[in-house]
Amino acid sequence: MFYFSYHSRPCLRPGSLEEQDLIAQARIANGVCDITGFLYREGDLLLQYLEGPRAELIELRNRISVDSRHNAVVILGQGLTSRRFFTGWPLGFCTAAVGTFGRFLGDAWGKTSLTEATAQDARLFLDGMCQRFDLGLAS
Fold first, then answer.
1. H helices of the chain, where?
2. DSSP letter string over 3-31?
3. With contact defined as beta carbons under 8 Å apart, do 4 and 52 qualify?
4. Is the dihedral of CA 41, 46, 47, 49 positive or negative?
5. Rounded-to-integer distance, Cα 92 and Cα 124, Å
6. Which segments constitute the BLUF domain (predicted)?
């Protein structure tokens, strides 16, 4: 099992039809390719963690890196993982509702900037957002 995580700056308006279409298309494509993960939007920040077959994720990472629907893509980490963390989520998605990624970095690890973020930070934060979403606490 392979994973990669990144953050970027979205170019699509929050909640726009274009954003909704992108999410719907990604859910279908990820399901076909056995990719799972979670996408979080907080204003001008996108944060995503994806996991699945190595070849498919490397191809997806390369497409994401040049996709014009966002910019300033920063890969937080990639590599092998022993298990899935987002089983059943071809692409979970939520927006900021409870806390922020920056606050999480500061509160949990004393980090003061996105430049200090790692893939593990992203996965832990998104796992929490995933749980909030399941409980109806996030939109």
1. 17-33, 54-66, 101-109, 119-134
2. EEEEEEEE-SPTT-HHHHHHHHHHHHHHH
3. no
4. positive
5. 14
6. 1-92
* Chain position carrying tokens 């993960």: 37
Q: pLDDT of 101-134, one tens digit each?
A: 888 898 888 888 888 999 999 998 888 877 755 5
Neighbours of 101 (CB within 10 A): 20
Record the pTM: 0.84
Question: Nearest-CA neighbor of 51 among 4, 118, 121?
Answer: 4
Length of the chain: 139
pLDDT digits (tens, 9 = 90+) for 40-94: 999 899 999 999 999 999 999 999 999 999 999 999 999 999 999 999 889 989 8
